[in-house]
Specification:
Elements lengths: L15 H7 L10 H14 L6 H9 L3
């Protein structure tokens, strides 16, 4: 999945701050819709949605 939907882990250095101060518990809460769209478009155009992990890594590193 392209949208960072995982929960923010508790117990990290500064990762507790968004949870404590704003109640944000998932990484996508830290981004507005525009950066989320940009992440999605860049991932699609770079081939990050491919089934091959090796191809995805190469695309993201600019090797292909």
């Amino acid at each position: 999945m392209i949208i960072p939907s995982k929960a923010i882990p508790k117990g990290g250095g500064n990762t507790d701050e968004p949870i404590r101060t704003r109640g944000w518990i998932h990484w996508h809460h830290l981004l507005t819709p525009q950066p989320l769209l940009i992440i999605k478009v860049l991932a699609e155009r770079s081939g990050a949605l491919s089934n091959s992990r090796e191809k995805t890594a190469a695309n993201l590193l600019g090797a292909i």
